[in-house]
Every structure is written in C-alpha cells, then in structure tokens.
Amino acid sequence: MRVCRSLSDRSQSPVALTIGNFDGVHRGHQAMLARLKESARSLGLPSCVLTFEPHPLELFSPQTAPTRLTSLREKLELLAAEGIERVHVSRFDRAFASRSPQEFIERVLLAGLGMRWLLIGDDFRFGARRTGDFTQLEEASRTHGFGLEAMPTVESEGVRVSSSVVRTALAAGRLAEAETLLGRPYSISGRVVHGDKLGRTIGYPTANVQLRHNRPPLSGIFAVRTIDGQGRVRDGAASLGLRPTVDDCGRAKLEVHLLDFAGDLYGQHLRVDFLHKIRDEQKFPDLDALKARIAEDCDIARELLAANESV
Length: 311
What we know:
Blueprint: E1 2-4, E2 15-19, H1 27-43, E3 47-53, H2 56-60, H3 72-81, E4 86-91, H4 94-97, H5 101-112, E5 115-121, H6 134-144, E6 147-151, E7 155-156, E8 159-160, H7 163-171, H8 175-182, E9 186-193, H9 198-201, E10 207-209, E11 220-228, E12 233-241, E13 253-258, E14 269-279, H10 287-310
Parallel strand pairs: 1-4, 2-3, 2-5, 3-4, 5-6
Antiparallel strand pairs: 7-8, 9-10, 9-14, 10-13, 11-12, 11-14, 12-13
C-alpha cells in the first residue's frame, strides 16, 4: 500500500476514492472499503482512501475530542490489511478546514487526487463549517463527470456501527460487543520499551508496550493474546491504566505479563489483542497485596484464554 502525505507526491493516475477518519476501521468502514475495491476493480482504477491527521475535533475542540481507537500507524496497518492500494493522509489544520466545499472538490479531490469515482458515508459533510453535503457532490459529479455513490448505514443487532459505539463498549469493558462491531478483537500495538522493572522484582516481568494513545479507550486488567513481528502468538495478562498502587504520573501505561514465557522482547513491535476484561484497576495497600492479586489475575487469564480456544 502506498501512503502519501501531500497532494504533490501522488501519482498522476486517477483513482476511485472514499473519504473519512476511519478510526478503528470497524465493520461499517470495512463495508465501505469492500464497496470501494469492488468499484475500483470494475473501473480499472486504484482504490484510494483520503483520511486526516489529526482528527478534526482534535483541532477545534481538543478538550472534548473523542478518544482514538487507533493510532495513525494502526489505522494504516488496518487499511493495508483490507487491501487498499493508496492512502492519502491530509494534514488537517485551519487552512485546510477553511476551504469552501467547491474548493475542496475541485482542488483537493479532482486536481489534487485525480478522483474519478467517489464513495461517501451517509453522514459525510465537508468544507468550511461542514456546509458541503451529498447534494453539492451530485451537482459537481454532473459538472465534472465523476461517479458518485453514498454508502448505506451498516447495523449490528439494530445498532448503527460507528466509532463512538465501539468506544462506549470498550469503556464499559464489553469486549465481546466491541469485537462484534470491529469484526476482530480490539487491539493496541506498539514497540516494547524499558520500564521501571517493578514487575521483574516481584516475580511478574512485563513487556511495556509504548502507547501512541494519550487516552486509551479502555482501562483495567485483561486477558490478552499478543502477536509479535514474526507472527508468534503468546497468551498474557495485561494492565492498561494509571497503575494507582505504584505510580502517580497521570499517564496510562500498557504492561503485559506473558504467561509461560521467558525472554527479551525489547525493541520488538507487539500487537496486544484484548479478549476478556478481568477487573477494574484498584489501589493496593502494599506490594505484597499487589503481587497476590497479580497471581490471581494470571490464573483467571489462563482460564479465560483456555475457554476462548475451545470455542
């Protein structure tokens, strides 16, 4: 998959395009991407996604912007796994946001990206103050001769599949529901970095996974499955949160104790699939109490993961 970060480094060939933030690349997004690829093949065009960095709400309302489900790297990895040929990552700043709908269509989509066919979601808005809509795109398609299609809503058990619904399920610890909405277990990936080595001193060494999420969409203690860069799968128990017993830095950390494993993972890229929530975070009176609870958490994780394999 080719990733471009400016309109000047695109190839000159026209594309079939869809547009969106694609946070989480959930089942609704996957349906859009499947339709995009289908149309691209029939038209003999490359499939292309236009996405934005940062999320528009992070620019206009950083204090109330939604928690990200995926970092940019994770989103690109998921788009590549869906078979998308090109992704344009547009820097979303105030100059970009101030473009009129007509300028966005003519300068960005047509002249910049070479769009010949466009698929949008049913709630898509664009241009300054989000004044552009499907009606304006229809008018432009007749004027400029590009194909246009709107994607119907994708539902799961009567609920519209959206990034916000996934966030709600994760925040409540409903991982099975989130997995249904995503079409896969929710995961966080990152490089294993050095931590404070506390886990090693109490007999439960952890892989400290570098977070690109300032505010992860879930927290607590989890039964997880990890996949490293060589595709090796290992079971574990993970802590994601503020570590109230031992830390007061106010930043979330992801620590994974791999069950029945001894080795060095520093520097490796690790994906952590969250399969079951064991409990919320809690503060313990001392390290002995923490150690006893970690032992219990690991036993629970083994049971849950063994049951998961037998399903």
